[in-house]
């Protein structure tokens, strides 16, 4: 067999490999904090990177808020805020660029302390759905998975027992979002350090269309162990795919499918 005869299949194989590596979409993971910093942030960032490797999407990570500009954000189908706190976008130009990104159909995923961000930025409060209020100690609780039929709840048990830091929120987002999961306050001590809890209706994960874009938020994800939990990773993966436009975004507040 000649050398030329061998070269052709090798070149073809290389071309096939390059084509197979083409990412389905691109995700930007943002984890800047100006308030409390969770020690699980590196685990959360690494988990999203691993999900990208396993499911064929590209992941960039940053804590540089100047990356929130029109040209850079245009590269991504969704942006994941991993336990951002305080005011991570502190320049008006960065906020304006992110708002334009969402208005033009971009996606947002907020994980855990993403709700402990942007208190002086009402538009962001609407995007995430509700602001953090307080929390009790880390403990086991039962999550009622109520938003069936979404990629973010696929494969989750109807009653999901897990250990996390369970947020109470300053308002109930239900009127404006599709609630995907609630907390059963009978299964843990829900009273936070401010002395109250949310009561019978306690959303902990939700999604909704917002200002032209797509938003998903989960209050879970405080602990390092969360990012090694296959069920929680499936939950996050579904939220990423839904907000990136790679899975059905059935998130209208009155949706039941």
TrEMBL record:
Signal peptide interval: 1-20
ThuA-like domain mapped to chain residues: 26-241
Keyword Signal attached: yes
Name by which UniProt lists this protein: ThuA-like domain-containing protein
InterPro entries recorded: Class_I_gatase-like (IPR029062), ThuA-like (IPR029010)
Keywords: Signal
PANTHER family referenced in this protein's UniProt entry, alphabetically: GALACTOSE-BINDING DOMAIN-LIKE SUPERFAMILY PROTEIN, SECRETED GLYCOSYL HYDROLASE
UniProt keyword Signal present: yes
């Amino acid at each position: 067999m000649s050398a030329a005869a061998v070269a052709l299949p090798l070149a073809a194989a290389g071309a096939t490999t390059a084509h197979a590596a083409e990412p389905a979409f691109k995700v930007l993971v943002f984890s800047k904090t100006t308030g409390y910093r969770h020690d699980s942030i590196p685990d959360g960032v690494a988990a999203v990177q691993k999900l990208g490797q396993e499911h064929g999407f590209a992941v960039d990570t940053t804590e540089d808020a100047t990356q929130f500009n029109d040209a850079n954000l245009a590269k991504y189908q969704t942006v994941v805020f991993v336990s951002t706190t305080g005011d991570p976008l502190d320049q008006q130009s960065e906020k304006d660029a992110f708002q334009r990104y969402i208005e033009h159909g971009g996606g947002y995923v907020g994980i855990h302390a993403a709700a402990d961000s942007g208190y002086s930025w009402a538009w962001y409060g609407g995007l995430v759905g509700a602001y953090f209020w307080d929390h009790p100690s880390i403990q086991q609780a039962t999550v009622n998975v109520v938003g069936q039929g979404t990629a973010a709840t696929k494969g989750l048990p109807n009653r999901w027992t897990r250990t996390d830091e369970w947020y109470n929120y300053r308002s109930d987002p239900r009127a404006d979002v599709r609630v995907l999961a609630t907390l059963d306050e009978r299964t843990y001590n829900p009273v936070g350090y401010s002395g109250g809890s949310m009561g019978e209706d306690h959303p902990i994960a939700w999604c909704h269309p917002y200002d032209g874009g797509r938003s998903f938020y989960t209050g879970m994800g405080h602990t390092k162990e969360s990012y090694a939990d296959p069920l929680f990773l499936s939950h996050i993966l579904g939220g990423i795919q839904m907000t990136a436009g790679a899975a059905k975004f059935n998130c209208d507040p009155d949706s039941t499918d």
